[in-house]
Design brief:
The protein has 303 residues and is mainly alpha-helical. The protein has a single domain (78-302), classed as MetI-like fold (Orthogonal Bundle), CATH 1.10.3720.10. It contains 13 helices and two strands. The chain has helices spanning 2-36, 56-63, 70-77, 79-112, 118-126, 133-144, 149-156, 170-194, 199-206, 211-239, 243-248, 256-266, 270-302, and strands spanning 39-40, 47-48. It has a two-stranded antiparallel sheet. α1 (2-36) packs antiparallel against α13, α4 crosses α8 (170-194) and α12 runs antiparallel to α13 (270-302). It is found in: Cell membrane. This is Putrescine transport system permease protein. Residues 85-291 form the ABC transmembrane type-1 domain. One of its GO terms (cellular component) is plasma membrane. Keywords: Cell membrane, Membrane, Transmembrane, Transmembrane helix, Transport.
Length: 303
């Protein structure tokens, strides 16, 4: 009876995440992919589905040969979408790198702090999440605009003679992404650094390593799982970011999130926008697979 209960429990534990993925990932993805194979129509919703589940299995099978990938072909004909994909990956990559540069010293300092204050430091890192994401992004408009707080401070200190133009540029987008996603980088880094055995640093220094050399040969390699996890947690959502480039970026800021919004709401072209979203998901699968492989290798090294 105990073995039967244990077996049912193990199956239930495995079934729950798979059920979650089926309901909230595969099912929505299938709906979006189905719309991407449809044609635009003046109706509500504004597309004419190629096939419907109401047709039954026989109807679905008969229409497989009629499926058209014209919407995907259209994406290759218009350079807007390719440029949006490339620009999104570049902006997300630079933002992730900047976030890592800022987050690593913060996480390292938290890991080296006395254990009694570490929970407080962790709470301070996640404290911004207690405020609405939209409000936090809007606050950067008041800070970065020509007559904003930053320019007023620099002008009062006589650091600059005229206001800096930061808002509505890619620089403002970088600032917004780094600020918004910084906790996602700090927490995985802190988790990896906090578990590190301090005696390894002492041993490296006893063998003649300088503090900097010991950091690059001992500390950083041991924190790589946290680096990879943090970079994935920042890079993946940053690629499809819409709010930050829309509010802080200018008209020249091209990201796939803004392109998707324009196709869905302004152009009312749901089939093409669904194709854009499907391709975006395929692009994001690459770093996810990379992350999973890195985790598997880290677990094997741990064994």
């Amino acid at each position: 009876m105990g073995k039967l209960t244990s077996g049912l429990y193990n199956r239930l534990v495995i079934a729950i995440p798979y059920t979650w993925l089926l309901l909230f990932f595969l099912a929505p993805f299938f709906i979006v992919f189905r719309i991407s194979l449809s044609t635009t129509a003046i109706a509500m919703p504004p597309y004419e589905p190629v096939f419907s589940l109401a047709d039954g299995w026989a109807g679905l099978w008969s229409k497989i040969g009629e499926l058209s990938f014209d919407n995907y072909s259209y994406l290759t004909e218009d350079s807007l979408y390719f440029n949006a994909y490339v620009s999104s990956v570049v902006i997300a990559g630079i933002s992730t790198f900047l976030t890592l540069l800022i987050a690593y010293p913060i996480a390292y300092g938290m890991a080296q702090a006395p254990r009694s204050i570490r929970p407080t430091l962790v709470m301070l890192v996640i404290l911004p999440f207690w405020t609405s994401f939209l409000i936090r992004v809007y606050s950067w408009i008041a800070i970065l605009k020509p007559e904003g707080l930053l320019n007023q401070l620099l002008l009062s200190l006589h650091v600059i003679d005229s206001p800096l133009i930061i808002l509505n540029t890619n620089t403002a987008v970088y600032i917004g992404i780094v600020y918004s996603y910084l906790p996602f980088m700090v927490l995985p880094l802190y988790s990896a650094l906090e578990k590190m055995d301090g005696t390894l640093i002492e041993a490296a220094q006893d063998l003649g390593c300088t503090p900097i050399k010991a950091f690059w040969r001992v500390t950083f390699p041991l924190s790589i799982p946290g680096v990879v996890a943090g970079c994935m947690l920042v890079f993946i959502p940053a690629v499809g970011e819409f709010v930050i480039p829309d509010l802080l970026g200018g008209s020249q800021t091209l990201m796939i999130g803004k392109t998707l919004w324009n196709e869905f709401n302004a152009n009312r072209d749901w089939p093409v926008s669904s194709a854009v979203a499907t391709i975006l998901l395929m692009i994001l699968v690459i770093p996810i697979v990379f992350f999973q492989n890195a985790q598997a290798k880290a677990e094997e090294r741990g064994k």
